[in-house]
Design brief:
Layout lengths: L2 E3 L7 E3 L2 H10 L7 E5 L4 E9 L6 E9 L6 E6 L5 H14 L3 E6 L10 H15 L6 E7 H5 L8 E5 L9 H4 L5 E6 L7 H9 L3 E3 L8 H17 L4
Parallel strand pairs: 1-3, 6-7, 6-10, 7-8, 9-10, 9-11
Antiparallel strand pairs: 2-5, 3-4, 4-5
Keywords: Cytoplasm, Methyltransferase, rRNA processing, S-adenosyl-L-methionine, Transferase
Protein name: Ribosomal RNA small subunit methyltransferase E
Enzyme class: transferase
Amino acid sequence: MQLFFHENTKEKTFHLDPDESKHLIKVLRKTKGDKVNFTDGKGCLYQCIIIDDNPKKAILQIDERQYLPDDDYYIHLAICPTKNADRMEWLVEKITEIGVHEITFMHSEHSERHHLKLDRLEKKIIAACKQSLKTRVPKLNPIRQMDELVQDKTFDAYQRFIAYVDKENDRHLFEKAEPDRAYIILIGPEGDFSQQELELAFNNHFLPCSLGKSRLRSETAGLAAVHTLQLINNLKYK
C-alpha cells in the first residue's frame, strides 16, 4: 500500500498540488479510474478515485473513508536541538516512523542551537508518515525554554522523565515507564543538562532515567527513548 497526504479533505473531491500530482501521475503512472489511499494526518484513511489525471493538478474523489483509533498511550519527546540541523531532521524522520505523538524543541543552559526551520521539519515528518503508513501527523512545537517546559501544568497527569548520564542514574527507562500512559521525556544537549536544570526537573516530578551504559548523541538518545516507550506499549500485545 502507498499512502498520500492531503490535509483538507472536507469536500467530496479535491485536487493535489503540482508536486504531488506529478509524483502520482508521472512517477507512479496512475491514471483516471485508479484508486489511491490518502490520509488527512488526523486519523482518517481515505480510498480515493482519480477522476482527472492531469500531472499538474490531479483531481480525486473520496470513495471510502475509515477512522483509525488513536493509541492508548502518548509519547511527547522534548529535546535540545543539536548544532547540526541535519541531525534533527534525521531524528524527526526516524521517530515519526517508529511512532511519536508530539515533539518539542528546548533551549537549555548548554544548548548550541536556538533556531530551527520548522517548515522543513514538517515536510520531513509528513514524508515519514507517508512512508511508514501513519494516519496521524505528530504535533511539532517551536523551541521553548527548558525551565518553562518542566513547570508546565499540562504535564501533571503525564509520566515525566529526564534522561541524562550519571553513574548513579542507572535505572533504565524500560524499568520505570508504565504502559498505556502519556509520557514526556526530556533529552538534553551534547553538554547535557546543568545541575540546576536537573534539580528543577526533579522538583517538578520528573524522574531520572537511563537509556543505557553508552554515552549517546542527543539524536540517538531521542530515538532510543521513543523506541523504548513504543516497545513497552507493544509488548502488551504479545
